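PROTEIN DESIGN WORKSHEET
SECTION A - STRUCTURE
LENGTH: 160
TOKENS:
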């Protein structure tokens, strides 16, 4: 799938301060599914979310959409490692990702809702409450499907 040079430049601008941190870079060392790192996965979700926003003419707050999509899995451990992962990862990691993200970045209400609700409906009471959160919730599932079935590491060929 393609993403325009203009969109790539805007994504890079929105994520510059996050990507510069050691914590964001550490996501390159954690496996998300199969052979795909958490870092590759969240970048795929950023691009997919922008694509869905365009297709639906949803006119999202694009900066919050991009930052929330990047931080949605900012839990910073390898969930396959039992030592670093207490309890059920699927249920617990949105709250962990939000707590970690808030330790390092100032998040607005939209970004917080994107992170905490991205596993809905698994996390029954954490409902997406804005269009940006609905878009990331759907885009995350789409990317997980593509990444698992097609084993496609870089759905959008974006390097940041
Ligand atoms: Fe997640
Ligand atoms: Fe995810």
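SECTION B - SEQUENCE
RESIDUE ASSIGNMENT:
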């Amino acid at each position: 799938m393609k993403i325009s040079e203009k969109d790539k430049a805007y994504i890079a601008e929105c994520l510059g301060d996050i990507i510069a941190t050691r914590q964001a870079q550490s996501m390159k060392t954690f496996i998300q599914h199969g052979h795909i790192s958490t870092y590759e996965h969240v970048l795929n979700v950023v691009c997919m979310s922008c694509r869905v926003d365009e297709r639906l003419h949803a006119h999202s707050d694009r900066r919050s959409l991009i930052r929330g999509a990047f931080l949605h899995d900012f839990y910073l451990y390898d969930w396959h490692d039992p030592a670093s992962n207490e309890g059920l990862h699927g249920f617990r990691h949105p709250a962990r990702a939000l707590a970690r993200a808030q330790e390092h970045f100032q998040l607005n209400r939209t970004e917080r809702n994107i992170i905490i609700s991205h596993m809905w409906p698994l996390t029954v009471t954490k409902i997406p409450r804005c269009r940006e959160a609905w878009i990331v919730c759907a885009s995350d599932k789409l990317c997980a499907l593509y990444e698992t079935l097609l084993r496609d590491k870089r759905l959008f060929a974006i390097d940041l």
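SECTION C - NOTES
The pocket of fe (ii) ion (ligand 2) is lined by residues 41, 45, 72-73, 140 (CB under 6 Å).
The chain has one domain: 5-149.
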